[in-house]
Amino acid sequence: MEKVVIIGTGCAGLTAALYTARANLKPLVLTGTMPGGLLTTTSIVENFPGFPEGIDGYELMVRMQKQAERFGARVEFATVESVEVSQRPFTLTVDGAKVQAETIIIASGAGHRHIGLESEEKLEKKGVTYCATCDGALPMFRNQPLVVVGGGDSACEEAVYLTRFASVVYLVHRRDSLRASKIMADRTLAHPKIKPVWDSVLTEVLDVAQDKVTGVRLKNLKTGAESVLDCAGLFIAIGHVPNTQLFQGAINLDAAGYVLRQRGSETNVPGVFVAGDCSDPVYRQAITAAGMGCAAAIDAERYLAGLNQ
Ligand code: NAP
Q: Which residue owns the Cα nearest ligand 1 atom 2?
C-alpha cells in the first residue's frame, strides 16, 4: 500500500514529491509519457526565482527530480490507465498493474491545444509541430520561412527561438495585439526576422497531397480576404488543454476539464489532492505549479496524519 501516489512529474508533481519525501512518506511518482512535463520542451526559463541567468527547462526538471529522489521519492516511468476513487484505499491501474494508495496527488499537467483542422492532423510531424525547442533545429526547417500561430508567451518564445534557424518567422495571430507579457511581446516584435500577421486565422495547412508543409492558407478576420503564405513548417502555440480525461466521472472537473479545487488543494474526493496546470486555468507558471505542488503535499501529509490519529 502506497501512502502517496503522485501522478505527473512537472513542476507541480516533483515539488509535491520533494515535500512528501521529506515528510518521510516515500511517494511513488508516476511520470506518464512526458517525464518532466511541458517545461522540458522550453528553452531558457527566465522567470523561475533563484536563476538570475535563466535555466534550461530540461535541466530545471532534472534537478527537481534529483532533489526529490535524494529524500526518498521513487520516480517511475509509468502511465496511469485508470483510477478508482469511490472506495478506500484508492486503486490505480498503472501499466496494467494495480496500485493501492491512501492518497493521490493529481499533477497531470496540460497538453498542447490543436487548431482542429483536418490538414493540421494529417501533417503533424510532417512540418506541423507544437514544440519549437523539440523540432526547430530539424534540417527541414533550416533557412526556410516558418509560421508560428498564437499571441501568448508561448508563441513569442517559439518565434524568437526559431529565428536561429529560419529565414523568416511569420507570427500569425487572430487579433491585432499580443496577449504575451510586455517583455516577451516587445522582444518578439522588435526582432528583425519576425513578421507579425495580424487579425488572421489558418483555414488550411498546405499541402496534404504532397505529404509535407509547403504553406498555410490564411483568412483575415477583419477584411475576409484569403491568402497563402509559403512556409516549410508550422509551429502551433495557442495554449493548452488540461490532461484530465482520466479523471472524468471520478473527480469533479469544470467545463473546460480543469480539476475543481475545494479548499486548498482538495478535490471533491477526500484524500485526492491536485496541483499545477491541470487545475489552473489562470496563472500556469512554473513557479505557481511548484507552489501548488508544495500545498498539495502539505495537505496530503495532514490528511494522512488525521487518518492515523
Ligand atoms: P495563452 O496565454 O493562453 O495564449 C494562447 C494564444 O493563442 C492567445 O493569443 C490566443 O488568442 C491564441 N489562441 C487560442 N486559441 C486559438 C485558436 N483556436 N486559434 C488561434 N489562436 C488561438 O497560452 P500560452 O502562450 O501557451 O501561455 C500559457 C501560460 O504560460 C501563460 O500564463 C503564459 O504567461 C505562460 N508562459 C510563460 C512563459 C514565460 O514566461 N517565459 C512562456 C510560455 C508560457 P487570444 O489572444 O485572442 O485569446
A: 152
